Every structure is written in C-alpha cells, then in structure tokens.
What does this fold into?
Amino acid sequence: MRENVMKNNKNILILDDEKNVLSALERLLHGSFEPDFCNNPLDALEMVRNGNYKVVISDISMPLMDGIKFIEEVTKIDSDVVTVILTGHSTVENAIDAINKGSIFRFLSKPINKENIIKAIEDSLEQHSNIIAKKRLFNLEKEKADMESMIRALSKVIEIRDPYTAGHQKDVAALSVTIAQNLGWDEDKIRGLNLAAIVHDIGKIYVPAEFLSKPGKLTSTEFSIIKQHPVVGHEILDTVNFNWPISTIVYQHHEKLDGSGYPNQLKGDEILDEAQIIAVCDTYDAMISHRPYRAALEKDKVVAYLKSTRGTQYKAEYVDELLKVIT
Ligand SMILES: [Fe+2]
It folds into this structure.
C-alpha cells in the first residue's frame, strides 16, 4: 500500500504565500513527491478547479484569504480532496474551528520537518484512496439496490396478471435462498439467486392468460407456448446489465440434469447452480400448490417424487437440502 502511495506523486498542491517556504518544501520533498506549488489562494483555487488533486496543503495565514477559508472553498470544488494545514501561528481556536468544519485531515506546524511532511502526504494519499474506495462501494450498493427494486417491480407485473403465480415466485425464492444458505453459498451469489427466483416466471407474460388458468389438460400447442416462457424471460431480462447472471438463470430454470428439460436440453454442469436450485424448488412448490387443472398433491407423494428424481433430473445435493427443509 505504502509503495503505491509513494509512486503517485502528481496529485498534490501546496499553497503558501511565502516563496521561501515553498522552495524549502520543494527541497524537502525532492525524490519523494513532485507537488504543484502556488503562492496565491485565488490562483490555487483556479488550479483545483482545473486539476485533479488528491491532496491540498495550505498555509493558514495569508493575505487575500486565510487557509481555513481556502480549504472550505477547495472542498466545495472537490469534496474528495484531502486537506492539510501548515501553520506557524496555530492557535487552539484555529485548530478547533477547522476540525469542527470537518474539512482538515492533518495540521503541521512550521518549521516543517522532512519526516513529518512526507508522513502527512503519505497518510493523506492513503486517506484519499479510502474515500474513493468507500464511494465506489456505496455507488455499487446503490446500483444493486436499484436493480433489486426493478426486479421486484417486474415480479409484481406477472403476479398481478396470473393469480396462480402470485406468491409462487416469492415462495420459490425463499426456499432457494434457504438451501443456498444451508450450503454456505457466498452472500452475493445468494442475492443474485434470490432476484432470479422472484422473477423466474416473468416470461409467462407472453402466455395467453386463459392457458395459465385453464382447468383442463393443455393441448400440445398450448403447452409448447407455455414452454417458451424461459426464452421470453431471458429476452426481457437480457436487456438489463445486471451484476448477476439473472437472465441466464431464468433461461435455464426448466433445464434438468439429465438433459430432459427445456428449452435447450442442457445437461449437468451446463446448467448454472442457481438455475438448478430454482428448478427443484419450483417443482416442489408447483406440486404442493393448487393448480387450475389439479388439486395440490400430498406431501408424501411429493417427497417420493423428489427422491425418485434425485441425482437424475435434479442435483442430489439440492434435493437432499430441500428434503431437510420440508420434512
Ligand atoms: Fe417456470
């Protein structure tokens, strides 16, 4: 970390109205850092506006503008800049005022010692990296939260249209997440699994409502249209650049380990883990629920079915975890 900090020597601005102080600092920093120097606060503000400084170091007592006011203006231009005050006349009031304004990272008193100024710059550059890293993390989290809201809105769309799907996607998601948690999956992967599960049947928007609520047996044409829903779901979700493979998971949620699923008859590891978990939970939830064409199946029959497909249609590990949760 320190080595990286030392190499980055083009991002520092030092302001002092006394030119001999600037020359002294240039000598002290020679070989370690190559800052820009300025002896006028107004010019320095212009440099901050046009530059890309990570650290700004300022004298406190200057004509035109004092250092505290200058730093305040700097942080208005760029709130990420880390600031250091140099002073020969520091008073407790100055320090308290600056610290209360929350804008000063370090105080250094004159005369400046080489070791202290280098340490202050290193610490300031590290502080800047931390600020940027935190900001990135915050933005990434916000982006993910926005995506989650969007997915939930999409989930509502299909649930409003098809009452039989209402709750199904949420139940499948809850069960899938429990299994993944019990298997010790990474938290972020579980987050993606949850999102894909709550929207896995979004492609049913393409299926005429009367097919979905038809009390009798579906014709082969009707069934082939229903079987398009993972493809349509993939098409809808593929337009968004998610942080997780949501559209692929949705595309694969009716594939089976032995290649007997649809739409692509994928086998084994060709199917994402997330799609495999959703597939088994989806099957279970559909079997225990009332459907327009049949009543809910008894739990014993469902358990027997899951056991009979363990390791063939559905991954044994996922069936075992599901059985632990439901029995
Ligand atoms: Fe489905």
